[in-house]
């Protein structure tokens, strides 16, 4: 069970879903905050859902205020770095580039991709944390190789 | 403890970020650094918190992008109002943004994702800022002095107060101790060295010995030591004390050159002596500190309010009252200082009102300095110079004049008080001012002119003298106090306080070598 958890985590890193920031979070986890990583993760997804919503609405309006969109995405990117959401972050960067280029089409496409990545990551992490809790608290704190 | 891993316990950090995830992470990271963390999701809220407790935080970390206020604006506010070091954060590492941060006065610009190791060293910004402020005051022309001050600051900062436990917070000790061990003296042996406390009496002996020998330049530590006849004192102690003393003297010289008053030197000479004599009459004991402390205490007690109101630059006759009452206690003839000298410096000498208020102001601010003899010189200085004053050994502060004796040296408040208390006439004022100048022992004309203009940023803040008194200790302190690294309960006991500065100043006889300091400085003022 524990090995399974470790493997899952390893694959998340290998596949580029997570970067070193996630490891940093794990190192912060201690007796005072035994579920720190999961808490942060939950917080991130809650907050990012809100941001995604904002961007969705802005895009739906169709007015394409690139400055505003860029600003939203800046926020989103910052947030995504917090848990090391690597792929999500990459999409954010792309989106911002399209914003600067004034490419509405590019923005829309990228945003769809971003939402997908975001959703994927959430599921994977939820699964991971669930297993980790089942396996025992120590596992989540262990660094992947 | 390894250098990179060190972080001072209890550094008070305010984190401002609209991103709740980052706020949570940063809080955890900072707590792991053993810092005291306050988080805030809104810039306005942050400002409110900061203003509420003006010296409640040592450093602010803020995100650049926030919904209610631009991070740079917050940075400006904090810098202007509170003069705290601010670190900016952003996911955006674009050069232009970073430059903007720097331009707005950010101490550092961290890129998200932020690593713990980056947070571990933020205390260095706090330290650096404090030292920078001292250097600014030292300003031009005192490069050697500035370095020395810095070194002294750092020693003082880092370990000077260790031997004196006057209510200093434990975390301050921790920090200082650690800093001392880790940064200042790699061998960490300094904390084991014996410390000499240069009390007033001791210093008096020292100065007497120096004067006895003659020109102090010829006086060597050994000779002085012999003359002093203090068995437990070592040549080494005397040597380092002499070094500081000489620096003080050389500053006085520079001061005089810069001021170029006509007859200034003479006036300075005469007035201190007069003050000395007179204060001697009043003084029950040998220690002028105690005496002056007592005197000032009384002064403080009698009329705090008028003084305070004076400081609010509202000259009125009430203000004059306190001086007169004090005058009865201390008879002092105004020194024969030419008004011209005075005129040259004070643009306002036309206004009698101003004259009246100003000396009182001096008195006020001077009284503020009360608890710390070493600070007495500051008198209307702005906070930075206050700190500088505090950082400097007492003998640097007062008495102007080339002929220095122990009394002058260590009884700044006496003279200044007597002068201030004197007739509110230009001569007294100029004398007072001269003393202030010399006591400032700073080459920073700007600071002095500022003091002339009676800008008392710190003292103006409060309406009551009590607070001012508090500030007096803390003004100089303040910068350091702000860091939570300094003695915060300073102003509790006057007698203790009168002893304090000496301890502070001289307590750290085992000042590390300049080498150590420069090492420390080099490594300490790290910030890339």
From TrEMBL, chain A:
One Gene Ontology BP term is: cytokinin-activated signaling pathway
Phosphohistidine PTM positions: 74
Give the location in the cell. Cytoplasm, Cytosol; Nucleus
Of the GO CC terms on this record, one is:
cytosol
Segments forming domain HPt: 33-128
Chief subcellular location? cytoplasm
Q: Name one GO molecular function term.
A: protein histidine kinase binding
* Record InterPro entries: AHP1-5/YPD1 (IPR045871), HPT_dom_sf (IPR036641), Sig_transdc_His_kin_Hpt_dom (IPR008207)
Keywords from the UniProt entry: Cytokinin signaling pathway, Phosphoprotein, Two-component regulatory system
Gene3D superfamilies per the UniProt record, alphabetical: HPT domain
Q: What does this protein do?
A: Functions as a two-component phosphorelay mediators between cytokinin sensor histidine kinases and response regulators (B-type ARRs). Plays an important role in propagating cytokinin signal transduction.
What's the record's remark on domains? Histidine-containing phosphotransfer domain (HPt) contains an active histidine that mediates the phosphotransfer.
Q: Name the chain's protein.
A: Histidine-containing phosphotransfer protein
Automatic annotation (TrEMBL), chain B:
Query: Which Gene Ontology cellular-component terms appear in the entry?
Result: nucleus
Keyword terms, alphabetized:
Activator, Cytokinin signaling pathway, DNA-binding, Nucleus, Phosphoprotein, Transcription, Transcription regulation, Two-component regulatory system
Region Disordered, annotated ranges:
300-333
> Which InterPro entries does this entry report, sorted A to Z?
ARR-like (IPR045279), CheY-like_superfamily (IPR011006), Homeodomain-like_sf (IPR009057), Myb_dom_plants (IPR006447), Response_reg_B-typ_pln (IPR017053), SANT/Myb (IPR001005), Sig_transdc_resp-reg_receiver (IPR001789)
CDD domains assigned to the protein according to its UniProt record, in alphabetical order: REC_typeB_ARR-like
| Residues modified to 4-aspartylphosphate | 63
**UniProt-recorded Gene Ontology molecular function terms:** DNA binding; DNA-binding transcription factor activity
Q: What positions does the domain Response regulatory occupy?
A: 12-127
- A GO biological process this protein is involved in? phosphorelay signal transduction system
User: Where is this protein chiefly located?
Assistant: nucleus
The answer to whether keyword DNA-binding applies is: yes
Location(s) in or outside the cell: Nucleus
Question: What's the domain of life for this entry?
Answer: Eukaryota
Coiled-coil annotation reads none
Q: What PROSITE patterns would the database entry show? A: RESPONSE_REGULATORY (PS50110)
Record's family? Belongs to the ARR family. Type-B subfamily.
NCBIfam families given in the database record:
myb_SHAQKYF (TIGR01557)
What does this protein do, in the record's words?
Answer: Transcriptional activator that binds specific DNA sequence.
Identification of the protein by name: Two-component response regulator
